[in-house]
Specification:
The chain is an alpha/beta fold. Strands 2-3-4-1-5 form a five-stranded parallel sheet, with helices on both faces. The longest helix is centred in the middle third of the chain and has 21 residues.
């Protein structure tokens, strides 16, 4: 498989690579950038280097398509690492399934004939959050036991969006980040357009996190190698005309790599 083509972002790439180093004191990266600014693509470009010497799992959190439950996310990760390695999680799932909600109807006066009374108990979001925290604790125990087996584990949570603050957001913020950032061989990357400083960024273990903000690629010199690698022909005869077209393209899309790359791929093939 050919290595993905990327324009610049050299410094972010290097900092992301360093996460895989067992001696790296940093464990959590918050990767921010607007739509089409290359967060997911940047991870895709670096991942072949990670896979050579570490386990690498990407979890899609884009709730515009689907809203996963905390259990679904934990099962997705454990399945990628081998479900047989997660006995504590499996046992906690069984316990959660066996729990029964209780409902009481007290101090009620009922009169009449042929009366049927039904008392319904419904699990609240707070109940589900508590269950999710217990599942996360069991999951973390299993991860701790895999330290010598995995060597290094990089978990990428792509598409984080805090605006809804539903169950999965509350769990992610209050339980998952804090728990996983305390496991020394685990590395977390949280990708999103806007990651709040007072919630999710504040949950990582002290002095273990850093943030990168992708601002786009605005220099023509960073895009010319991409055009050449894709074997595309820039419009114009003279080199200055070609550069003028490329600069116009960069300006029109404000340096957003996703939009610029899409337009370059539409050019005539050399």
């Amino acid at each position: 498989m050919p290595h993905p083509i990327i324009a610049n972002y050299q410094e972010p790439r290097q900092k992301i690579r360093e996460l895989a180093n067992p001696e790296c004191p940093l464990r959590v990266l918050f990767l921010e950038g607007g739509e089409n600014y290359g967060k997911s693509y940047l991870i895709q470009c670096v991942s072949p280097e990670w896979r050579a010497h570490s386990k690498f799992v990407v979890v899609e959190l884009d709730k515009r398509r689907d809203i996963p439950s905390p259990l679904e996310i934990l099962v997705e990760i454990s399945s990628a690492l081998g479900p047989e390695n997660f006995p504590h999680l499996e046992a906690e799932v069984r316990r959660a399934q066996q729990r029964r909600l209780q409902a009481n109807a007290n101090n009620n006066t009922i009169s009449g004939t042929n009366i049927r009374v039904e008392v319904l108990a419904q699990e609240t979001d707070d109940d589900r959050l508590i269950t999710s925290i217990q599942l996360t604790s069991a999951f973390a125990k299993d991860l701790e036991n895999l330290r010598d087996v995995l060597g290094a584990l990089i978990l990428v949570f792509d598409g984080y969006d805090h605006r809804l603050m539903n169950l999965v957001d509350r769990w992610f913020d209050r339980s998952l980040i804090r728990t996983l950032s305390n496991i020394s061989y685990v590395r977390l990357i949280v990708c999103g357009r806007d990651l709040p400083m007072t919630t999710v960024k504040a949950r990582a273990a002290p002095d273990t996190s850093f943030q990168l903000s992708l601002a786009g690629v605005t220099e023509e010199g960073d895009w010319l190698p991409v055009v050449a690698a894709l074997r595309r022909r820039l419009p114009g005869e003279a080199i200055e005309e070609k550069k003028a077209f490329l600069n116009g393209l960069i300006f029109a899309h404000e340096g957003a790599p996703g939009l610029i790359m899409r337009r370059i791929k539409m050019l005539e093939v050399e």
